[in-house]
Design a protein that fits this description.
- The chain folds into three domains: about 5-315, 3-Layer(aba) Sandwich (Rossmann fold); about 350-525, Rossmann fold (3-Layer(aba) Sandwich); about 550-675, Rossmann fold, CATH 3.40.50.
- Strand 4 (about 200) and strand 5 (about 205) form a beta hairpin.
- Helices cover about 45% and strands about 10% of the residues.
- By secondary structure, the chain is of the alpha/beta class.
- It contains 28 helices and 18 strands.
- Helix 6 packs across helix 19 and helix 16 crosses helix 22 (about 505-515).
């Protein structure tokens, strides 16, 4: 199909089409120049691609950015954010021209990299290269899961594509390799990525570090691969059409582009990668492209008219879908009701009665095992609960035996393979569907691989659940490479992250309840490999105290305590033993279980002071991990029993003894503190 044929169909002249493309290009140039900060090169090189995507290919409604069956657009090369902002403004999203003029300014909806929630139409936060690439894979997996569950003959309720613009940097990051491998293995045909092959990075040409054959790599991953000239509009259009017709493989369109296209002195140079063109070069570029020098941020009326056709087109597309959904409700009322329920916060009343309970006489139970039982119990009531493990399901207890496999029949059990980095970002993509509750399991020590994605989940406020098992030196013989020391402190340092380390099986039930009700950010469940006694709740306070993050497990019987013992997870059992011994010796002791710092610190001050009265300074914290941060609870006169070194390879009981995590060691520390 030629350009003229495309234009005749749409009523757009070639001249007007060129003006549309230059409007995109120079909104970006002017925005970066006004901010005196940013990346003009990528929007300049990709304006033609963006034009074809947003006017010829993508299905969306600017009037309702959250329409469930819209196509998703991910700018994985987030440094080129002005490209996305230009498209959102031009096509009619609620993003004003003034907002583009405030690019990279405080409280502006147009930050330096796209941020989910700042501007309508931004589907995900991108910035760290590779994250957008892998998040898009999660979006495609969400599309497949929902389509498998809800689509019926004549009712394709879920039928949308995920498009992304990706860069050389995305291709170099290992995360993208993990995600691409998984996408190819699953045959995610709704995934269409355009690779901006401009051969330039910040340090120079890609040839200094990146000489692989990307096309052959992606063919080996089981992707459809096409090559296009990034400025040949009919070729781009045809490639996108071919990609949509390929249903059994994801598609990569390799577009040969030129960074800072049109700039006489900065095209194809690293200079346009992270700095404005400069006033003189902006004028030269506008002259070179036949664009007026003034006014800046020019949007000709006839150009805006072309782009704003997206509003009527989007309304029409959504109305067609609403008509389809209306018929769907009549034909499949139960499924329609489930669809609506999945797009709301989980209703605890539906699954609370199914939760297991654990008794003292059941003996020692690892919290990872209890977690698996909770997961199996709640799943029948939560159709949107979907996830798996990074090849550790037998250890993480994350596999749902009564349900199908994602790869085979679109079921909820996902085999992520040994791909923790990709798993983290994929979970984000699934959570962005606003219909799914994704979870992913691995050993706590491997949360290091997932940290960038965990951080973005927290930044976006996504309700992702992490099942991190083997939580301390208690995992034993695998040794220090697998024994997490600094990981709890590391996770607790992430803003908007909830970390929960339950002390027994009953608290694990409560921890899952907390995680499922936490809708404004991710939650990490920190679970033991070793068996732990079920705490006798006839002697100690009920496990639902976990919901407040910390609670008094037992208190002194004869007046105000002289000493406060506190701990998390397995180490709670050490302070229980110490509490008994010290109480028998006449010491007045309060015992506090503090499974979630974040949850506790969100409580009213009155409650926090009731648990930790400011006038009681003698306190001991016990946790088999880094002591970093515990001083906020122990104060200057307290003590922290933690680990400032790596572990060792030995049975868990020997390690706890060698590293002084015993009842006797706690008692001795208490006596020393009491003087």
């Amino acid at each position: 199909m030629t350009t003229n044929t495309l234009n005749r169909q749409s009523g757009i002249t070639d001249k007007l089409e060129k003006e549309c493309i230059n409007t995109i290009r120079f909104l970006a140039v002017d925005g970066v120049q006004k901010a005196n900060s940013g990346h003009p090169g990528m929007p300049m090189e990709a304006s033609e691609l963006a034009y074809v995507l947003w006017t010829r290919a993508m299905k969306y409604n600017p009037g309702n950015p959250d329409w469930p069956n819209r196509d998703r657009f991910v700018l994985s090369a987030g440094h080129g954010s002005m490209l996305l902002y230009a498209m959102l403004h031009l096509t009619g999203y609620a993003l004003s021209l003034d907002a583009l003029k405030e690019f990279r300014q405080l409280d502006s909806p147009t930050p330096g990299h796209p941020e989910y929630g700042c501007a309508p139409g931004v589907e995900t936060t991108t910035g760290p290269l590779g994250q957008g690439f892998a998040t898009g894979v999660g979006m495609a997996m969400a599309e497949r899961f929902l389509a498998s569950r809800f689509n019926r003959p004549d009712f394709p309720l879920v039928d949308h594509f995920i498009y992304a613009l990706v860069s050389d940097g995305d291709m170099m990051e290992g995360l993208s390799s993990e995600a691409a491998s998984m996408a190819g293995d699953l045959g995610l045909g709704k995934l269409i990525y355009i690779y901006l092959d401009n051969k330039i990075t910040i340090e120079g040409t890609t040839g200094i570090t990146f000489t692989e054959d990307v096309a052959r790599r992606f063919e080996a991953y089981n992707w459809q691969v096409q090559r296009v000239d990034g400025y040949d509009l009919p070729h781009i259009h045809d490639a996108l059409k071919n990609a949509r017709q390929e249903s059994s493989r994801p598609s990569l369109i390799i577009a040969r582009t030129h960074i800072a296209w049109g700039s006489p002195n900065k095209q194809d140079t690293p200079d346009a990668h992270g700095a404005p063109l400069g006033e003189e070069e902006v004028l030269l570029t506008k002259e070179n492209c036949g664009w007026p020098e003034e006014p800046t941020f020019l949007v000709p009326k006839e150009v805006l008219s072309v782009f704003r056709q997206a509003l009527d087109r989007g309304d029409g597309l959504e109305n067609e879908w609403l008509t389809l959904y209306s018929g769907y409700q009549k034909k499949h009322p139960d499924l329609a009701q489930e669809w609506q329920a999945m797009h709301k916060a989980p209703d605890a009343s539906k699954w609370h009665g199914a939760l297991p309970h654990f008794a003292v006489d059941q003996g020692n139970i690892a919290t990872r095992k209890a977690s698996g039982q909770v997961l199996a119990a709640v799943k029948p009531f939560l159709p949107g609960l979907v996830g798996g493990s990074a090849d550790l399901a037998p250890s993480n207890n994350t596999y749902l035996k009564e349900f199908g496999e994602f790869k085979e029949d679109g079921g909820p059990n996902i085999r992520f393979g040994i791909r923790e980095h990709a798993m983290g970002a994929i979970l984000n993509g699934m959570a962005l569907s606003k219909a799914l509750i994704p979870y992913g399991g691995t050993f706590l020590v491997f949360s290091d691989y997932m940290r960038p994605a965990i951080r973005l989940a927290a930044l976006m406020g996504l309700p992702v659940i992490y099942v991190f098992t083997h939580d301390s030196i208690g995992l034993g013989e695998d040794g220090p490479t697998h024994q997490p020391i600094e990981h709890l402190a590391s996770l607790r340092a992430i803003p908007n992250m909830t970390v929960v380390r339950p002390a027994d099986a009953e608290e694990t039930v409560e921890a899952w309840g907390l995680a499922l009700s936490n809708q404004n950010g991710p939650c990490a469940l920190i679970l033991s490999r070793q068996g732990l006694p079920v705490i006798d709740r006839s002697k100690y306070e009920p496990a639902h105290g976990l919901q407040k993050g910390a609670y008094i497990l037992a208190d002194s019987k004869d007046g105000e305590p002289d000493l406060i013992l506190m701990a998390t997870g397995a180490e709670v059992h050490l302070i229980i033993g110490a509490h008994e011994q010290l109480t028998a010796r006449g010491v007045k002791v309060r015992m506090v279980n503090i499974p979630s710092w974040e949850r506790f610190e969100a409580q009213p001050e009155a409650y926090r002071h009731r648990v930790f009265p400011p006038h009681i300074p003698l306190r001991i914290a016990v946790e088999a991990g880094s002591p970093l941060g515990w001083e906020r609870f122990t104060g200057s006169k307290g003590a922290i029993m933690g680990m400032n070194r790596f572990g060792a390879s030995a049975p868990a009981k020997d390690l706890f003894r060698v590293f002084d995590f015993t009842v006797d060691a706690v008692v001795q520390k208490a006596e020393a503190l009491l003087g």
